[in-house]
Write a structure and sequence with these properties.
Xyl_isomerase-like_sf; metal-binding; three-stranded parallel sheet; isomerase activity; Xyl_isomerase-like_TIM-brl; binds alpha-D-psicofuranose; TIM Barrel; 441 residues; L_rhamnose_iso; binds manganese (II) ion; 15 helices
Length: 441
């Protein structure tokens, strides 16, 4: 087995505690890893290749997911939560140190507004943390804001309100440039609660006009991600309600515009992996907001409700990766989480989600694609299906643990995190957040 990567950054967590936890588990880990190696070898899969590909997986963390989330009824903060962007970055760095696959944070404005972005960037860089897509927010009115978004923002009937929303997005791009980000995510909450409230066509036209101005301001190496969502806060219609409208708009805007798939933003029972395949095929898969859901946009931990769906999505992603590689084309969707942790420690939820996402990727990597293609050509339905079942049912945890370990992370993330006592220490050191009323963040 390869040696552990050399650390070049500040550590948010005591590395010796993580190493000591790993030492305790090393004998069992080696045994499990060897068993999996032998098991995979029987199917002609090289575990070393799987581990190396797993080590390339990177998922951005939502700044807003680092504090306890809330429902529209209440939010219950926990002791030791981060109070500002610096503390959120520190928590991200701690998660990354253990998980080895979350090297970026995705900021949300104005929630993360601060006065000196150079300082923020330097602080993050010291921890080895970079910046994922910046998110604009025209779904809330901010204190002192001139015009209200109550009836819409980028698609508002009023030109001045649209202009205000455009300018906010332009400001997000400027901030993102200071941070070294290279994408803007636009989730538009505009929509209607009543039939007859607005005309679908004109509303979309106004949205596209606004987006054209934002698109024109994108730096050369930037992308804009259009995030669709079929309902909430609007309950009759939304402007960008599904991937169909999203891809139409992305195509109209140009090559830098791509679609972002949030797992909870679809109608019930929609085949999300197929949406992923379609967007990838047409070069329009920009990114993900990983989470899970049972009923709607629940923002639950990735893989906690429907791990098979997560695996099927990664099955499409690996297929798309390999198709692109054959053509020498680029395939680089931006993977991010978007979760709301209402009853768990956000850092623990994120560690678990990273494990679920990495696990889904690992399982997708061991699918016997040549055999599956042959079964598909021969219309052998059961065996084609079983190629997926076999991979999904394989316990890939040792490969994932090895990928983490080689990056200096933990064989058992949760045990290591708890052993560091990080949250308890932060509960002593950080100002307690005041209990708030409802609201997502
Ligand atoms: C909307 O529900 C959403 O998924 C968008 O990504 C927002 O930016 C985020 O949640 C805010 O919590
Ligand atoms: Mn989202």
């Amino acid at each position: 087995m390869d040696d552990i990567a050399v650390k070049r950054h500040l550590s948010a967590l005591p590395q010796d505690v993580i190493d000591a936890e790993n030492d305790k588990l090393m004998a069992a880990h080696l045994y499990d890893y060897e068993s999996l190696r032998v098991r995979l070898e029987r199917s002609d899969v090289d575990i070393e290749t799987v581990v190396r590909r797993l080590m390339t997986l990177e998922v951005g963390l939502p700044s807003w997911g680092m504090i306890s989330g809330g429902t529209r009824f209440a939010r219950f903060p926990m002791p030791g939560e981060p109070n500002n962007i610096f503390e959120k970055i520190e928590d991200c760095a701690a998660v990354h140190q253990i998980a080895g696959m979350t090297p970026r944070i995705s900021l949300h404005f104005p929630w993360d507004v601060t006065y000196d972005y150079t300082e923020v960037r330097q602080y993050a860089e010291a921890y080895g943390i970079g910046f994922d897509a910046v998110n604009s927010n025209t779904f809330q009115d901010q204190p002192g804001q001139t015009l209200s978004y109550k009836y819409g923002s980028l698609s508002h009937t009023d030109r001045a309100t649209r202009q205000q929303a455009i300018e906010h997005n332009l400001e997000c791009i400027e901030i993102g440039q200071k941070l070294g980000s290279n994408a803007l995510t636009v989730w538009l909450s505009d929509g209607t609660n009543f039939a007859g409230q607005a005309q679908f066509a004109e509303t979309l036209e106004r949205y596209l006009d606004s987006m054209t101005e934002i698109y024109a301001a994108l730096p050369d190496d930037w992308r804009v991600f259009l995030e669709h969502k079929l309902y909430e806060p609007a309950f009759y219609s939304t402007v960008i309600q599904d991937w169909g409208t999203s891809i139409l708009c992305a195509q109209q805007l140009g090559p830098k515009a791509q679609c972002l798939v949030d797992m909870g933003h679809h109608a019930p029972n929609v085949n999300i992996e197929m949406i992923v395949a379609r967007l990838a095929q047409f070069g329009k898969l920009g990114g993900f907001h990983f989470n899970d859901s049972k009923y709607g946009d629940d923002d639950l931990d990735a893989g906690s409700i429907n791990p098979f769906q997560l695996f099927l999505i990664f099955n499409e992603l690996v297929h798309a990766e390999e198709r692109a590689a054959k053509r020498g084309a680029a395939f680089d969707p931006s993977y991010m989480m978007d979760q709301s942790h209402n009853v768990t420690d956000p850092m623990e939820s994120i560690l678990n989600s990273a494990r679920a996402i990495g696990g889904a990727y690992a399982k997708a990597l061991i699918v016997d694609r040549a055999a599956m293609a042959a079964y598909q050509d021969a219309n052998d339905v059961m065996m084609g299906h079983n190629c997926l079942r076999l991979a999904f049912e394989t316990d890939v945890r040792p490969a994932l643990a090895e990928a983490r370990r080689r990056k200096g992370g933990a064989i058992d993330p949760m045990a290591a995190f708890r052993a560091t006592g990080y949250r308890a220490e932060k509960a002593r050191a950080r100002q307690p957040r005041r209990a708030e009323r409802g609201g997502i963040c």
